[in-house]
Design a protein that fits this description.
about 140 residues; mainly alpha
Length: about 140
């Protein structure tokens, strides 16, 4: 739906105003919510919508329309794949920041995050809590 809206606005704005950046947002949204394959499919659809908007505005479709379509498709796939890899790297770094690399057990940062969550639940539910903490450094 978002891509269709962008395509209609792109067509209505004519060739003078470029809306290319807006085609990226649905791709990033699809990658972050549904994964790489769906993101690449949305990227393909975005390239087709952009091609269609350009083709409808042109007096005749020439060879460079197809070339531009292929380049846009490659660009959208590249953006989707890079965003996917960035998301994986960020998730890995989050895990490493909360886990001891040698033993694999949660570190003090993970403990304090979990403790704050439990304390907040006890505060909301007005329940008492007892905590014992031993730091083995």
């Amino acid at each position: 739906m978002l891509l269709a809206t962008i395509g209609v606005v792109d067509y209505a704005s004519g060739r003078e105003i470029g809306l290319s950046i807006f085609y990226i947002f649905p791709i990033l949204l699809a990658v972050s919510t549904s994964g790489l394959v769906v993101g690449l499919a949305v990227g393909t659809l975005a390239a087709l919508v952009w091609f269609l908007a350009d083709a409808l505005l042109a007096k005749e479709v020439e060879w460079f329309f197809y070339w531009n379509g292929v380049i846009r498709l490659a660009f959208f796939w590249l953006v989707g794949a890079l965003y996917w890899r960035l998301s994986l790297a960020l998730a890995r770094e989050r895990t490493l920041a909360r886990q001891d690399p040698l033993s694999g057990i949660p570190n003090s940062r993970a403990f304090f995050e979990m403790a704050n969550a439990v304390l907040e639940q006890c505060r909301i539910g007005r329940r008492p809590i007892a905590v014992a903490y031993i730091d083995c450094e």
